[in-house]
Write a structure and sequence with these properties.
Layout lengths: L1 H7 L5 E3 L7 H5 L6 E4 L7 E2 L7 H6 L2 H10 L4 E3 L4 E4 L4 H13 L3 E3 L4 E7 L2 E6 L2 E5 L2 E3 L14 H8 L4 E7 L3 E2 L2 H7 L6 E8 L2 E9 L3 E3 L1 H7 L8 E4 L6 H11 L5 H5 L5 H10 L11 H12 L1 E3 L3 E2 L7 E6 L17 E3 L7 E2 L4 H14 L3
Parallel strand pairs: 1-6, 10-20
Antiparallel strand pairs: 2-5, 3-21, 4-5, 7-8, 8-9, 11-19, 12-15, 12-18, 13-14, 13-16, 14-15, 16-17
Helix pairs in contact: 1-5, 1-13, 9-12
Bound molecules: flavin-adenine dinucleotide (FAD).
Length: 376
């Protein structure tokens, strides 16, 4: 996006990528259909130590702007849920679109081109690569985060930033499954494959969506979302009956289905295997009419505010994003240019701007790329 924008301005642009092809994360995204934007994107959908930083670029290149390009290239798309737009056919179409736009703008692209050294002199940047030495007035670092190292992710952008005097905020895996261990894992053992809607809550944030229990822990959109707000030791709570007021529902069961065991009525509103495990492990399993009010309140509290002790995350191997990164406080929010080194820009995930699940991360990549491309 940055390259095609700068190319359209008449700049001579060279893209350098060490991978054997560009846009690998686009190709693998959204299950192969690329969730390329979210129509509801606002700054509130991003995590950053500097929450205002992303506003300017997002306002100047909106989801509608990207959709306009997608439509101009005849790419069919659909909204899945909550403003998330996906290609009908394949993520390859998004990469093709960007490559075609780059070609039209005269952008040169080099793949399999590792960067060995970057220096800045009086005449700009010198980038020594496996395919020769390049000189440029501007240098844009768009090397992403640490997620999915097998796809070519490296900490290269962070090293460049540090070498030019930029501060880095601690990085960690985001949008990632959480792991359970010890007795917490044992209690969920045999529930692998169970999926249910939940509301996941941590550190003042909550997400309502599906959770999937896996053999290692928990995953699914609600968990991926909350994982970006969770750190080891933090309190994580799950509403296992997000469509009900648990206390009210239990009182109703007590009056209408008093002779039924708790496990029976619970199995009607959540997966049976989970209902059975909850009744074996945490809840009293007896006919609902035998629950007195304190017992009923305790059961409701467990169902609507279940404390889950996660031991960690699956890490960068499966994380969709990297939280933290280049501190934005020394980067211009208008142009993405370093305030320390004129001509040096940072865009996309390498910056400390991390979106929620749902197309926000690509919208940030497009918008920040566009902002830098207008200036670099
Ligand atoms: C499995 C998966 C699915 C995802 N699905 C979605 C989705 O549907 N919607 C969404 O919004 N977001 C999604 N994301 C997040 C999204 O892919 C990223 O936030 C986005 O790609 C970041 O763009 P970027 O340009 O900053 O970095 P990247 O897309 O990671 O690109 C970085 C580029 O830099 C190159 N590079 C790295 N190091 C070097 C080096 N040393 N020298 C030369 N080149 C280098 C890489 O090869 C790569 O081409 C997904 C992520 C993953 C992992």
């Amino acid at each position: 996006m940055c390259a095609l924008t700068a190319g359209q301005r008449g700049r001579i642009v060279q893209v350098i990528d060490h991978a054997n092809k560009v846009g690998k994360k686009i190709l693998m995204s959204g299950g192969g259909r690329c969730n390329f934007t979210n129509t509801g994107t606002t700054a509130a959908n991003f995590i950053s130590a500097n929450p205002h930083f992303c506003k300017s670029a997002l306002a100047r290149y909106t989801p509608s702007d990207f959709i306009e390009m997608v439509e101009r290239h005849g790419i069919a798309y659909h909204e899945k849920e909550l403003g998330q737009l996906f290609c009908d056919i394949s993520s390859k179409q998004i990469v093709r679109m960007l490559l075609d736009e780059c070609a039209d703008a005269g952008v040169q692209i080099r793949t399999d081109c590792g960067v060995q050294q970057i220096e800045r002199g009086a005449d700009g940047f010198r980038v020594r690569t496996a395919q020769g030495l390049f000189h440029s007035a501007s240098l844009v670092i768009a090397t992403g985060g640490l997620s999915i190292p097998s796809m070519g992710a490296t900490g290269f952008g962070y090293e460049v930033a540090r070498s030019f005097g930029h501060e880095l905020l601690p990085t960690r895996a985001g949008l990632v499954p959480l792991t359970l261990s010890g007795k917490h894992q044992e209690r969920f053992a045999e529930l692998s494959g169970v999926a249910l809607p939940v509301e996941a809550r941590c550190n003042g944030q909550s997400f309502r969506n599906f959770m999937l229990i896996t053999h290692r822990g928990i995953s699914g959109p609600a968990i991926l979302q909350i994982s970006s707000y969770w750190q080891p030791g933090n309190d994580l709570r799950l509403d296992l009956l997000p469509d009900h007021d648990a206390a009210q529902w239990l009182r109703q069961m007590k009056s209408e289905r008093g002779a039924s065991e708790l496990r029976t009525v619970l199995s009607e509103v959540m997966p049976r295997r989970l209902a059975l495990r909850l009744c074996e492990q945490w809840l009293k399993d007896k006919p609902v009419r035998q629950f007195d009010e304190p017992e009923l309140k305790a059961a409701a509290s467990l169902l609507s505010d279940f404390p889950l002790v996660a031991s960690g995350t699956e890490g960068y191997r499966t994380a969709e994003v990297t939280l933290g990164g280049v501190d934005t406080r020394k980067v211009s929010s208008a142009t993405m240019e370093s305030q320390l080194v004129p001509g040096l820009h940072f865009i996309g995930e390498v910056l400390d701007v991390t979106g929620w699940l749902g197309g926000y991360n690509f919208q940030w990549a497009w918008a920040s790329g566009r902002a830098a491309g207008m200036a670099a």
